[in-house]
Amino acid sequence: MHQAVEIRPARPEDRHGVEALLSAAGLFLQGVDEHFAHFVVADNGGHLLGAAGLERHGDEGLLRSVIVAPDARGLGLGEKLTEAIVASANRLGLISLSLLTRTAEAFFARLGFERVPLGELPPTLSGSRELCCPRSSSAVAMTMLLNPLGRSAIVFRAAVHGAWRAIPKPSRQDLFRQMEAFAALETSSPLQAFVSGDYQVEVERKDGQGLVLVSSVRGPAD
């Protein structure tokens, strides 16, 4: 590779090359055409080395078609492609980004995705052709709650995902701002609670990791 690899939005003329990469790896092609406007590619001087796609279903997103050509593996392209889709989902204001995988659970876990039961994925994703595929029933489901501020100091216990999704968007954004400010403080206090409107979250600091873990979410009905 004599040129720097560029991670960029996919263009219509990239579609056949992306589908060729996916076909060679035995990955799902259905729905690529419908969502190709939200794909990104790894471009090395006009030669496609990888791709990843985003399906938007309401306020939820599905990460799909993450692929790197065999001769380009080990360069960190899979991580860069995934991060580009996460950034795109954040810009679109999506609540979460989910995925299905059979072979890359450890890879996606390193990037902040958490394993969840397939039946606990957001219901709006049921319209995805990828989730309707019969082989999806044997895949591992993973999800990441997104931060509209574009930073990643906040992580969530899987048990609070549903309650967090129920918080109205203005309150979610306000709570994110409060939690990010707490994460940036040098304080000995390991626990904190934050309130926005009728919603309260309890968090705990993950010492040495620069992270804040959301352990509890309460709404007006609690």
Number of domains: 2
| Dominant shape | globular
Helix content: 25-40%
- Tell me the number of strands: 11
**CATH architecture descriptor text of the largest domain:** 3-Layer(aba) Sandwich
User: What would you give as the CATH superfamily of the largest domain?
Assistant: Gcn5-related N-acetyltransferase (GNAT)
Q: Please, could you describe this protein's structure?
A:
- The protein has 222 residues and is of the alpha+beta class.
- It folds into two domains: 146 residues, Aminopeptidase; 75 residues, YaeB-like fold (2-Layer Sandwich).
- Strands 1-2-3-4-5-7-6 form a seven-stranded mixed beta sheet, sandwiched between helices. Strands 8-11-10-9 form a four-stranded mixed beta sheet.
- Strand 9 and strand 10 form a beta hairpin.
- The longest helix has 16 residues.
- It is globular.
- The mean pLDDT is 90.
